[in-house]
């Protein structure tokens, strides 16, 4: 058997048979918000967290202008009573009135949230007022003429106290509707879920892998689990989106280098804690924006702990022809985690030249 044929035989053992592919359909009643079968959307939000974000957006459009107008009235003392009445009046119909909630699941989650946490939401608005919310921040004070603040102004944060984050205050602290990782972001970051306007976009995803399931030596991740496994995880995660069906050799070479580096970390108890290398099969999964793209080209990106909003891409994948050493260099350049950087450095110093620089594509035999 020629070595090329032998490699082929190994490769077929290496690339798993294709799994069932579900096409994820955006809910008809909420065409702008694709939901994966696990109930999470492209940001990793569950229905309760989505409902809280929709609630705060809708409330702010009405409440911030009214409160700012109330506080701007020269004669008014903007008494606690008057402001409280504004807040109460806005909260009562909040789940019914928003035009954005055509989705029954989200609307029900909103109603449940308000049944149990309405007072906490109101208290967050009072905290905002107490910290100076409702007065323009640009030094000019509130509008003296009592004219209405526009929705755009309300949303721009011009009336928010310095450092105020609505998402954190209401959806994190007051109601616990969103987990901490999601509640830390500004609300505006959730505005564009990549669906575009017009026709609902369909994201394909393989079925959810088993916990810790690996493929080709890497952690298996799908479009539907990308957010929880890569973005939300508090670790350095190198995510490789590959196309084994389109370029089996390129995939084989890249997977060999990435899989061997993963093993170098996994076999060391301290180093493996905060580090992972994940593989998404791009031929069956559409990783939603902002983390994926439509390009059918392989990518390797570091989603570094503490800096998940800024993935760093490997700029030249050399058609998958990567050595373990090049992968380790990439990790050292893009991670800010001492345990990861130190271990990668230690590996480059302590491993054999063959382990570090092996060019599997030049090998005559495996
Ligand atoms: C684990 O890695 C560290 C460097 O990150 C190294 O100092 C240590 O010796 C390694 N442990 C083992 C058992 O190889």
From TrEMBL:
<keyword id="KW-0349">Heme</keyword>
<feature type="signal peptide">
    <location>
        <begin position="1"/>
        <end position="20"/>
    </location>
</feature>
<keyword id="KW-0479">Metal-binding</keyword>
<keyword id="KW-0408">Iron</keyword>
<dbReference type="GO" id="GO:0020037">
    <property type="term" value="F:heme binding"/>
</dbReference>
<feature type="region of interest" description="Disordered">
    <location>
        <begin position="191"/>
        <end position="211"/>
    </location>
</feature>
<feature type="compositionally biased region" description="Basic and acidic residues">
    <location>
        <begin position="198"/>
        <end position="211"/>
    </location>
</feature>
<protein>
    <recommendedName>
        <fullName>Cytochrome c domain-containing protein</fullName>
    </recommendedName>
</protein>
<feature type="domain" description="Cytochrome c">
    <location>
        <begin position="34"/>
        <end position="130"/>
    </location>
</feature>
<dbReference type="GO" id="GO:0046872">
    <property type="term" value="F:metal ion binding"/>
</dbReference>
<dbReference type="GO" id="GO:0009055">
    <property type="term" value="F:electron transfer activity"/>
</dbReference>
<keyword id="KW-0732">Signal</keyword>
<dbReference type="InterPro" id="IPR009056">
    <property type="entry name" value="Cyt_c-like_dom"/>
</dbReference>
